[in-house]
Fold this sequence. Notes:
Radius of gyration: 22 Å
Order of helices and strands: HHEEEHEHEEEHHHHHHHHHHH
Distance between the termini: 29 Å
Strand content: 5-15%
Shape: elongated
CATH architecture of the largest domain: Orthogonal Bundle
Largest sheet: 5 strands, antiparallel
CATH topology of the largest domain: Hypothetical protein af1432
Strand order of the largest sheet: 3-2-1-4-5
Structural class: alpha+beta
Amino acid sequence: MTENKLFHCREFARFFAMALANATLYSPHHPQVIRLAAKAYQSLMAAMGGEEQLAFLLIDDQMVADHQPLEKGVYTARVRQAFHEKRIEHVEFSAKTTEEDLLLLIRNLLNPSLGYADMAPNDHIRFGKIALEPSEDLEPGLSDGAETPFLPKEELPGSESRILAEIYEQAKKKRHFSLSGVAKMVSGLVKFLREDLPSFLALAAIQDKDGYTFTHSTNVSILNLAQAISLGIEDRLVHDIGIAGMLHDVGKLFIPEEILCKPGRLTEEELAVIRQHPVQGAAYLYDIPQIPPLAVSTAFEHHMKFNGGGYPKVPAGWTLNLCSQITSISDTFDAIRTRRSYQEPANLETSKEILQKIAGAELNPALTRNFIGLIDSARV
Length: 380
């Protein structure tokens, strides 16, 4: 594949992912979705370069165009996940594909009532399922047989999921972990945010109807970084604020799973156990070399309220650091937008109303206004 074709394939993935994000965040018929779908279509046609068809394979953590893996990133991950949720791992576009076909495909991907058999808008777009051979050969073969296992939706794609898995495994054993993996992830997020803040924020700020796009910690980190960048905070501190968001809930790894994963509401005794996680997380991070002090403070303070309430209890007059207040907003927003056994995810407007209602009491009012402005600007 030529570099030019590879570029247009990456651009197609980028615009298609952003169209999906905006369709979920607003409406599949929103003008921004139509505009982004048009850009995705232009990139798709440019990638075809006059050929009759272009096929994409969506295997595990990789998006492949004409046997050439595309660079891993947030956009290819979003595209892969959307198709995987419909049990699709092979999609072929013909030269007769139209902009309206792409728009209808986006609507179908986001329609929970449509199954695999109902997904294709017409003969211009065809789907397939792939099974990998037991030899673990990375060259896929088309098959109409049994489907391959899918990663849980809570997991991050590729190296990110492995980094977090390693950190969590070490934390559960009360061992130290290397900060380099987290630092690399956050540096990548900062780069993406500085290049395209609105569209990346749109990807991070949404919750699909069936669960997370990314893990909660990653969402909080992204939302933290977006807030920090919008406030004009300098690079080194922005980086530490991102790490603090990624690690703010590490103390929950020390909470018994039967409490942490309990369906339904918790008892007062169970809530008391849950409320220990800020202290446990801060104590764990404090002993790890090179962890930014800001991450330790944020792990300890992220459930404290602007008006002095919340937990853990601290002496009167305690001043919350800025990162903790930023993280509280990100954490609250992501929780509101999350489906739980006892709670449906709130839509965007309701989420903003809840934030406005608790601003000044639980959340810093000025930072909350800034955050809502960011969410409103997440249109590309």
